[in-house]
Design a protein that fits this description.
Length: about 170
């Protein structure tokens, strides 16, 4: 190869390298952009936790203990729910039956409760109509307690009463 051509080849490669460097620098100064769309679906959802699933009531003298508290003490309730604005989160309870011992019956309405915590309410158990235990008008995590009491009476026939299932329903439409 002739010396002039060799030098021209080197200059050509040097020119290509310079052009690439200038082009890369120009791209860095004029960045390209792109968009991406992100979506997240938040659906109505509910979660309910009870600290106890069994309640027992000891025998007691109706004169000294007119309302028998459950042996297990207060039930801690954790209610979590998401709902749309304008909807309510509702916690209710319904008894499967009255308290029975053979043919003897103590009406389930003898079972009442007190409640503490935002949105929780006291009430009287029922076997035909679900009773409200809590109500919230916004999404969130709501903790409270429910203390069961059984009305005590001298008129109750002796026996072992129950079991009765209390079904809690949490709805977040």
């Amino acid at each position: 190869m002739r010396p002039g051509l060799k030098q021209a080849g080197r200059c050509g490669w040097l020119l290509v390298a310079c052009l690439l460097a200038v082009t890369a620098d120009a791209r860095a100064q004029n960045p390209r952009t792109a968009n991406e769309t992100v979506t997240f679906v938040v659906a109505a959802q509910a979660n309910l936790t009870l600290s106890a699933t069994t309640q027992t009531f000891p025998n007691a003298d109706p004169d000294t203990v007119p309302q028998i508290p459950a042996s297990q003490g207060p039930v801690t309730i954790t209610t979590k729910g998401r709902t749309a604005p304008g909807n309510q989160i509702i916690l209710s309870a319904l008894a499967s039956d009255d308290l029975r011992s053979g043919t003897n019956t103590i009406l389930i309405g003898a079972l009442t409760w007190t409640a503490s915590g935002t949105g929780y309410v006291g009430g009287t158990m029922n076997r035909t109509t679900a009773q409200q235990v809590g109500l919230w008008s916004t999404s969130g995590n709501f903790g409270g307690t429910q203390t069961y009491l059984l009305a005590n009476s001298w008129t109750y026939p002796t026996g072992n009463y129950g079991p009765v299932t209390l079904t809690y329903t949490l709805s977040a439409p």
